[in-house]
């Protein structure tokens, strides 16, 4: 039986584990927990088969075909890679679920001095504003994409093993370049989070904030859903993908400034231009997404 | 049988009409249509009982207890009020569904030279990114709020008639001051639309826009849903509520600039401060909304 070791069992790791268990996959799932209560919860929920408190307790059992999955916060990856380097044989597949891939590549270079062929960087494009083991969802990845960003140094056999594992829980695999991944996710995920957090913080700081939130309706709830995401996790993502995030913020701010000027000067053509281009692009995008989901 | 005349039968007006018909309400619903094909569609769908092409065709039939509902685009209200002034007796209730109330007050002052006691300004807080008669939904207003903003000049009997009509389709009535309404909606609805339109337009203008939209996922679709709203309608709203919209944009931009600076300078405390305040405020807001919806 192959082994899957999950370091940092939160929503992402526990949903993967529960998805594999639910589908009677051929993995023994071992969780590395710092918190005893989380470990007990994961055992009770059937998320993991076994719990350990440190990778060292299980490293000697691992070999070819086994996978170590790092689902710790993005900026903690480097510390985990130090452990991997000292404890794991080169035959063990190492992968991750971090939302930024360039920072993991840098961490690997800092720790190993090279990109180890056993390291497969990955990013499941699924999530929730909920977090933790208690939110584990065995179908979180069904019809969702997992982006893998193999590098020239990466061994194809390790990529195949990671891809196979994700497909078992219903995910579709996409291969992408590390830098393109970070640029695209900076634009479509990290920037929206920056905006949603900033918008809600703006309104919460307003003198009328009690009235504002009292009379806000369902549309506002949907628009700001991602502002309920885990602050610590998103702090890490913003800093790990700083270059792309700042670039995206600047493009957005420039566009917003032009739109503001158009509203101030009653420039109806410019206002309708922005609104119409946006509607056309989004309608086109959602149609394609609908076709993919069929 | 009382008469409800709807001028400008789009999503808002047709959903009200269909909601009343579905509940066998005691209104004869008469639609004023410029487009023959829309009129036929509304008749076929059972949205209206009768169609006319001008308010003048039906004005002489109207008296106390009858309601004229203006659901035309916000900036077209003034032209409709000119018709109302020349055609309707002071016993007929006049109301509207525009998203901005200050601009309707100004239009009334410009047309009548005063606030006529028969005029009840209203705003149903419900909608969809869909539009038009074909999107009519008889349950659009169930458990949604309709804000009425009566002024000192407004006759209570007219307010009661309008409130009663909205309650028949499941809405909850809130009374509010005109200026507070525009400030709150500017913050919770108009600003989010500005942001969503601007964000999607920013990404559509990016050199990588094909990849960006190809790899964007469901979270992006939800966040940008309101960018698929009707550009003409939202053009009017932005200009009608210009003062509040510009003020809201400025507060948001200042907050976003501070957050950008915190990311650039690795100021983790400031980043987590924004994210945590936002999450707390939103979680608090959604809990209250959930209790209201029970």
Description:
Chains A, B: Residues 2-293 form the Prephenate/arogenate dehydrogenase domain. 2 copies of one chain form a homodimer. In chain A, 53% of the residues lie in helices and 12% in strands. The mean pLDDT of chain A is 95. Chain A is globular and about 70 Å long. The first copy, chain A, has 2 domains: 2-176, Rossmann fold (3-Layer(aba) Sandwich), CATH 3.40.50.720; 181-293, Orthogonal Bundle (6-phosphogluconate dehydrogenase C-terminal fold). In chain A, helix 5 links the parallel strand 8 and strand 9. Chain A has 11 helices and 9 strands. Chain A has helices at 11-22, 36-44, 77-87, 102-112, 156-168, 178-204, 209-215, 218-223, 231-240, 242-264, 268-293; strands at 2-7, 27-32, 50-52, 67-70, 93-96, 119-120, 122-124, 145-148, 172-175. The first copy, chain A, is an alpha/beta fold and 294 residues long. The interface between A and B is large, with 92 and 91 residues.
Can you lay out the helices and strands and say which pair or pack?
Two copies of one chain form a homodimer.
Chain A: E1 2-7, H1 11-22, E2 27-32, H2 36-44, E3 50-52, E4 67-70, H3 77-87, E5 93-96, H4 102-112, E6 119-120, E7 122-124, E8 145-148, H5 156-168, E9 172-175, H6 178-204, H7 209-215, H8 218-223, H9 231-240, H10 242-264, H11 268-293
The proportion of residues forming helix of chain A, as a percent range, comes to: 40-55%
- Radius of gyration based on Cα positions of chain A: 21 Å
What is the CATH topology classification name of the largest domain in chain A?
Answer: Rossmann fold
CATH architecture of the largest domain in chain A: 3-Layer(aba) Sandwich
- Chain pair with largest interface: A-B, 92 and 91 residues
Beta strands of chain A, count: 9
- CATH uppermost class of the largest domain in chain A: Alpha Beta
H/E topology pattern of chain A: EHEHEEHEHEEEHEHHHHHH
Q: What is the assigned CATH homologous superfamily of the largest domain in chain A?
A: NAD(P)-binding Rossmann-like Domain
Round the mean pLDDT of chain A to the nearest integer and report it: 95
Main sheet: strand order of chain A: 3-2-1-4-5-6
Globally, the shape of chain A reads globular
Largest sheet of chain A at a glance? 6 strands, parallel
Span from first to last CA of chain A? 34 Å
Alpha plus pi helix count of chain A = 11
- Note the quaternary state here: homodimer
């Amino acid at each position: 039986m192959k082994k899957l070791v999950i370091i940092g069992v939160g929503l992402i790791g526990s949903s993967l584990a529960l998805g594999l268990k639910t589908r009677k996959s051929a993995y023994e799932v071992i969780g590395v927990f710092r918190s005893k209560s989380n470990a007990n919860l994961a055992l009770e929920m059937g998320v993991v088969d076994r719990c350990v408190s440190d990778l060292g307790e299980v490293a000697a059992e691992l070999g070819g075909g086994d996978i170590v999955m790092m689902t710790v916060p993005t900026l903690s990856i480097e510390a985990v890679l130090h452990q991997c380097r000292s404890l794991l044989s080169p035959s063990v597949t190492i992968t991750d679920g971090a939302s930024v891939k360039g920072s993991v590549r840098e961490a690997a270079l800092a720790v190993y001095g090279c990109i180890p062929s056993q390291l497969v960087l990955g990013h499941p494009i699924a999530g929730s504003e909920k977090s933790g083991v208690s939110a584990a969802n065995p179908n979180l990845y069904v019809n969702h994409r997992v982006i893998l960003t193999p590098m020239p140094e990466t061994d194809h056999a390790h990529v195949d093993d990671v891809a196979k594992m994700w497909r078992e829980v219903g995910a579709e695999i996409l291969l992408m370049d590390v830098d393109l991944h970070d640029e695209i996710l900076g634009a479509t995920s990290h920037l929206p989070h920056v905006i949603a957090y900033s918008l809600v913080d703006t309104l919460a700081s307003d003198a009328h904030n009690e009235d504002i939130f009292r009379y806000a309706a369902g549309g506002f709830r949907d628009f700001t859903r991602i502002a309920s995401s885990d602050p610590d996790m998103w702090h890490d993502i913003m800093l790990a993908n700083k270059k792309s995030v700042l670039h995206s913020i600047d493009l957005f701010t420039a566009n917003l400034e032009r739109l503001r000027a158009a509203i101030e000067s009653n420039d109806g053509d410019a206002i309708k231009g922005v609104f119409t281009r946006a509607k056309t692009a989004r309608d086109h995008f959602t149609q394609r997404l609908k076709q993919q989901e069929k």
